[in-house]
Amino acid sequence: MWETKIPINEVREIRVKTTVYLGVGAIKKIYDIASEIKQRGLSKVVVVCGKASYIKTGAWDDVKKALDDNAIDYVLYDKVTPNPTVDQVDEATKLALEFGATGVITIGGGSPIDAAKSVAILMKYPDKNARDLYEYKFSPDMAVPIIAINLTHGTGTEADRFAVVSIPEKDYKPAIAYDCIYPLYAIDDPALMVKLPENQTRFVTIDALNHIIEAATTKVASPFSVLLAKETVRLIARYLPQTLAHPGDLTARYYLLYASLIAGIAFDNGMLHFTHALEHPLSAVQPNLAHGLGLAVILPAVVKQIYPAKPEILADVLSPIVPDLQGIPAEAEKAARGVEKWLFTVGVTEKLTDIGFKETDIAKLTDLAFTTPSLDLLLSLAPITADRKTVETIYRDSL
């Protein structure tokens, strides 16, 4: 039983801080939210989003009307790309400050929400910029209020304290984590996600899967993060194939969205380690690489490395997609092959070579894993020693 492996004398912090409205039609809660923030004195906001999804999903119709109904003025920044950059954050912050905004509303998946969280900090620190923030040149403890309307079921960022933004000229993709960027409110409405492209549906869901495999096996994992991990895998195993076959199935989307939410809460508590630390260099070097695809490519190799250290937990957590694991260190190869086989069944067959990486790239990727700000913290939380040899092995096994 994995319960005996939890160090009960080490105190763990349990975090569940954002109020999230989950369900079909949850977008209508924006009217109540707008009324409340106006009563709090928030009369100007910056709206941060990507280039099109905020309109295509219909979310903007309700957000705009809610703002107009409550006489909340807004300025729109709709230039956030996948793997957002520090320059986009600075541009949005400048726009917000010049407008006099005192709050942030963000509509989108992980990229717009993470960019918006960064903007919310810098609005309180106008003498700083996004490079200062992501190179850890200061430690913020303030941000303006954030309202997040989530459009994907993968990142969990609508309910956690994390954000990720790239510094292109250095091939850095660091993460930050500050209490001040928990969204005040978040909206998780599966009806906004039925138009997600098939590959995006796959990749964002695999992001959630990686969150919990890591959160359940870090050095700071708790029974709470393991519990959430087990339920996340159960829901993904059941509802991802259904969603791929029937994209408009709101029940399936609902449970993938719920799985993503609790996965975000899981890693907000249990943190992350290898898979995210090693994926960030991939999508920093290739900004067009979908984060979830990068994670999928290296996940089997990570499972192979960490399984001997956490066999009981991983056997239990992975049981819906890799049955018949006994929870013994010797079956690490079986567990890794089982994860790879499951990924193939949901249509993810790529390896590093398929997405443009070569053996000669491994040294640079390994360097980035150890030099990118924040990734050293993730590596330090891995259940095994995260030395250069281990990182190179994971990359090489993923080719």
TrEMBL record:
<protein>
    <submittedName>
        <fullName>Alcohol dehydrogenase</fullName>
    </submittedName>
</protein>
<dbReference type="GO" id="GO:0005829">
    <property type="term" value="C:cytosol"/>
</dbReference>
<dbReference type="GO" id="GO:1990362">
    <property type="term" value="F:butanol dehydrogenase (NAD+) activity"/>
</dbReference>
<dbReference type="GO" id="GO:1990002">
    <property type="term" value="F:methylglyoxal reductase (NADPH) (acetol producing) activity"/>
</dbReference>
<dbReference type="GO" id="GO:0046872">
    <property type="term" value="F:metal ion binding"/>
</dbReference>
<dbReference type="Pfam" id="PF25137">
    <property type="entry name" value="ADH_Fe_C"/>
</dbReference>
<feature type="domain" description="Fe-containing alcohol dehydrogenase-like C-terminal">
    <location>
        <begin position="206"/>
        <end position="398"/>
    </location>
</feature>
<dbReference type="InterPro" id="IPR001670">
    <property type="entry name" value="ADH_Fe/GldA"/>
</dbReference>
<dbReference type="Pfam" id="PF00465">
    <property type="entry name" value="Fe-ADH"/>
</dbReference>
<feature type="domain" description="Alcohol dehydrogenase iron-type/glycerol dehydrogenase GldA">
    <location>
        <begin position="19"/>
        <end position="190"/>
    </location>
</feature>
<keyword id="KW-0560">Oxidoreductase</keyword>
<dbReference type="InterPro" id="IPR045910">
    <property type="entry name" value="AdhA-like"/>
</dbReference>
<dbReference type="InterPro" id="IPR044731">
    <property type="entry name" value="BDH-like"/>
</dbReference>
<dbReference type="InterPro" id="IPR056798">
    <property type="entry name" value="ADH_Fe_C"/>
</dbReference>
<dbReference type="GO" id="GO:0008106">
    <property type="term" value="F:alcohol dehydrogenase (NADP+) activity"/>
</dbReference>
